[in-house]
Write a structure and sequence with these properties.
543 residues; 14-stranded antiparallel β-sheet
C-alpha cells in the first residue's frame, strides 16, 4: 500500500484539481471533382479533370479540449521570434480553414500510326495532400492551460496514493488522487515555474502540393510482345516539417533550441530560446522533395500458356523532410530519401503446365490444372546516416568551465538535443555481406565508439559535424518467390485449388539495415535480416 509512483491522472494545472480527461474535437471537410474524357480524333484521347477541396479547420467541443497554439512573437530573426513567442488559446486549430484547394490534371493517349502498334501516353497533374484531422490538432494535447499528466513519486511533497473507489457510477468513482499545487500562467502562456514540452503548428498552414508528370512510349515488337520506355517524376513543395516520420499522427521538430546553449551557459541543462517552455515541436510548410524515374519494361505471352513481365527502374528520390540535428535551414540536409533505391529489376512469370489425356480420366485429372509462377526482385540498398544519441559530456577546467568534448561525448552542437552527426573522413565502405556482418568501419581505431571511431572524429567544440545526410549505402535486396497451383474441378460449379507457395526460394540472406548509432556495440553492423525461406501450403474451395 505504498506505491512508488502514480501517473496517468489528468489535472488542471491552474487549479491543481483532478479533471476527467476528455479530448473532444471535430472538423468538417468537403470536396468536388469533375472529369471528362474526350476522343479528339480516332487515334487521340484526352482526359482532364479538376478537383476542389476544403480540408477544414478543427475546432474544440469541450472545455477540456484546449487548442493552445504556439505563436511566434516579435523579432528580426527567427530565434528572436521564438524567444518572444507565446501560447494563445483559440477555439479553432488554425487561423483559417485549409480551403479553396484547386487540383487540375490532364492526360493524353496517342496512337501515331493509327494501327495499334505504337502508343504514346503522358500526363500532368497538381495534387494536394490533406493535413489530416490528427495532423492539425494533436500538437495541442498537453499544452497549457489544458490538462496535464504529472507523475508522483514516493518521498516527495506530493506522494502517490493507494486507495479504493467508493462507487461505480460517477467519475471519478470515489477515488482520491494526490494533491498538486495550483499554478498560474506567465506572460508567454507557460506555467510559472515549469518548463515542459509543448507542440505547435503554423496557424496559417497550407496544403502540401505535388506536381506530378509522366510520359511513356509503348511498341508492339511481335504479335504478343510489348516493350515500353517511361518516365515518371514529381516535385513536391510545402511539405510538413518532420513529416517524413512514418506512422506519426502529428509531426513537428523542436524549434526551441540553439547551438552552444550548454557551452554558453556552462550547464548540462539547456536554457532554451524561450525560457517558458521545454521542447517546442512545431510543424510548418518548410520542406520539399523530388522524384525522377526511368522505367524500361518488356512483357508478353509465350505461346498460349506462358506470360512474363520484366522491368528495370532507375530512380532518384530526394527530400529534406526528416528530423535533423538542427531545426533551422532544413534544406542543407536535402539528400537521397531514406527509402531511395536507385536500381530495381523485377521479373514475374507464369506457365500453365499442359496435362495428359486432355484432362480426361484419372490420369488427366491428376496432371491437368497445374500452374507454376514466380517473381524475382533485385534492388539496391537504401541510404543511411551515421549519428550519435550520446549526451553532451564536456571536459572541465579547474575553474569549472566547459573546454571541450570527452571522447565519448555526443550533442556536438551543445543545444541539449542528443541527436547529432559527426565529422566523416570517408564515405567509402565495403559492400560484401561479410563486411556488413563484421562491421563496415574497420581501421584500428581506439575509443568507445567501436571500430568506426577513427572514421568519425569529434567536430570542433560546439560545432555540428560535417557529415552529409544519407551518403552511406545499406545492403541490397534479392529474392525469388515461386508458387505451384493445382485446380481440380469437382463438379461444373465447384473447384478445389491447392497452393504450394515458396517465399525466398533460394534462402538468400537479405540483411536489414545497418546500426548507424556511434555508441552502440554493433555500430556499423547489420544484425537483423528479412525472412528466410518459408513455405506456405493452402487449399481454396470455390463454389
Amino acid at each position: 500500500d505504498k506505491p512508488y509512483t502514480e501517473s496517468g491522472v489528468a489535472y488542471n494545472p491552474l487549479t491543481g484539481k483532478h479533471v476527467e480527461w476528455d479530448w473532444n474535437a471535430a472538423m468538417t471537410t468537403s470536396g468536388l471533382f469533375a472529369e471528362d474524357t474526350w476522343k479528339v480524333r480516332n487515334n487521340v484521347t484526352l482526359t482532364y479533370g479538376l478537383r476542389w477541396d476544403d480540408f477544414g479547420n478543427p475546432y474544440s467541443r469541450s472545455a477540456q479540449t484546449v487548442f493552445a497554439n504556439f505563436y511566434y512573437g516579435p523579432g528580426q530573426t527567427i530565434q528572436q521570434q521564438i524567444a518572444n513567442g507565446s501560447v494563445i488559446q483559440k477555439n479553432h486549430a488554425l487561423n483559417r480553414a485549409v480551403t479553396d484547394i484547386f487540383s487540375p490534371r490532364i492526360g493524353v493517349a496517342w496512337d501515331p500510326t493509327n494501327t495499334g502498334v505504337w502508343v504514346v501516353k503522358g500526363g500532368y497533374g497538381i495534387y494536394h495532400n490533406w493535413p489530416t484531422f490528427a495532423n492539425m490538432q494533436e500538437e495541442y494535447r498537453g499544452n497549457p492551460p489544458g490538462p496535464i499528466f504529472p507523475t508522483f513519486y514516493q518521498g516527495t511533497a506530493n506522494v502517490p496514493l493507494f486507495v479504493l473507489g467508493t462507487n461505480n457510477t460517477t467519475p471519478p468513482f470515489g477515488f482520491t488522487y494526490p494533491t498538486l499545487p495550483a499554478r498560474s500562467l506567465n506572460s508567454h502562456g507557460g506555467i510559472a515555474g515549469l518548463q515542459f514540452p509543448i507542440g505547435g503548428i503554423n496557424p496559417n498552414l497550407k496544403s502540401p502540393v505535388s506536381y506530378a508528370y509522366s510520359a511513356s512510349v509503348e511498341r508492339q515488337l511481335l504479335h504478343n510482345i510489348v516493350a515500353s520506355v517511361g518516365y515518371s517524376g514529381s516535385k513536391d513543395t510545402e511539405l510538413l516539417s518532420g513529416g517524413g516520420q512514418v506512422y506519426n499522427v502529428s509531426y513537428g521538430v523542436d524549434i526551441n533550441r540553439f547551438r552552444d546553449d550548454l557551452i554558453l551557459n556552462n550547464s548540462l541543462v539547456p536554457t532554451r530560446l524561450n525560457h517558458s517552455f521545454g521542447q517546442v515541436f512545431y510543424t510548418a510548410n518548410d520542406r520539399t522533395s523530388a522524384y525522377n524515374a526511368l522505367i524500361l519494361d518488356l512483357r508478353g505471352r509465350v505461346g498460349t500458356r506462358g506470360f512474363f513481365n520484366v522491368s528495370y527502374t532507375r530512380s532518384s528520390s530526394m527530400d529534406d523532410t526528416q528530423v535533423y540535428p538542427t531545426a533551422t535551414n532544413p534544406h542543407q540536409y536535402y539528400a537521397p530519401s531514406i527509402w531511395n533505391a536507385p536500381n530495381r529489376l523485377s521479373l514475374s512469370w507464369s506457365y500453365q503446365i499442359p496435362g495428359l489425356n486432355q484432362g480426361a480420366g484419372l490420369q488427366g485429372r491428376l496432371t491437368s490444372g497445374w500452374v507454376i509462377s514466380g517473381d524475382t526482385i533485385l534492388q539496391s540498398g537504401n541510404p543511411y546516416t551515421v549519428f550519435t544519441n550520446a549526451p553532451f559530456l564536456p571536459t572541465v577546467n579547474s575553474a569549472g568551465t566547459f573546454t571541450g568534448y570527452q571522447t565519448n561525448s555526443g550533442d556536438y552542437n551543445a543545444d541539449g538535443d542528443n541527436y547529432d552527426y559527426p565529422n566523416v573522413v570517408s564515405y567509402h565502405t565495403a559492400t560484401s555481406r561479410k563486411a556488413y556482418l563484421k562491421g563496415l568501419f574497420q581501421g584500428g581505431a581506439t575509443g568507445p565508439y567501436a571500430s568506426g571511431f577513427s572514421n568519425f572524429p569529434l567536430p570542433a567544440f560546439g560545432q555540428e559535424g560535417n557529415e552529409k545526410y544519407d551518403q552511406f549505402q545499406g545492403p541490397g535486396f534479392a529474392e525469388t518467390d515461386a508458387a505451384l497451383l493445382k485446380d481440380t474441378h469437382i463438379t461444373k460449379t465447384t473447384n478445389l485449388q491447392l497452393r504450394f507457395e515458396f517465399y525466398n526460394l533460394f534462402n538468400r540472406v537479405n540483411l536489414n539495415g545497418v546500426d548507424a548509432n556511434l555508441p552502440d556495440g554493433n555500430f556499423g553492423k547489420s544484425v537483423a535480416q528479412f525472412n528466410p525461406r518459408w513455405i506456405q501450403l493452402g487449399a481454396n474451395f470455390i463454389f
